[in-house]
Specification:
The chain is mainly alpha-helical. The protein is built from one helix and no strands.
């Protein structure tokens, strides 16, 4: 009977130590997850800012492209007018 009590106490002690260890691991993991989530939130916020910033820059680039195309069309129209005058004079 004495051996059974000692064995039971040993097992109970080991179980308690294991539960304490698991509790520490659980706490560390929760803290780690919290830190990872906070860092992920910061990254997501930064990416959102970058997307907005790049979107504005792309809009400006497209506006510039459109303005250049319009200017080229006007130049082409004027050159065509002068071309017609030159061709008439040569004939």
């Amino acid at each position: 009977m004495n051996d059974n009590n000692q064995l039971f106490e040993l097992i109970s002690k080991m179980y308690g130590e294991m539960q304490e260890g698991f509790g520490k691991i659980r706490t560390e993991m929760q803290d780690g997850f919290k830190e990872v989530n906070e860092r992920l939130d910061r990254v997501e916020n930064r990416v959102t800012i970058m997307e907005q910033d790049h979107g504005k820059k792309l809009d400006l680039l497209f506006d510039g492209y459109k303005q250049n195309a319009e200017i080229l069309e006007r130049i082409e129209t004027e050159v065509s007018k002068h071309e017609e005058v030159i061709i008439r004079r040569v004939k």
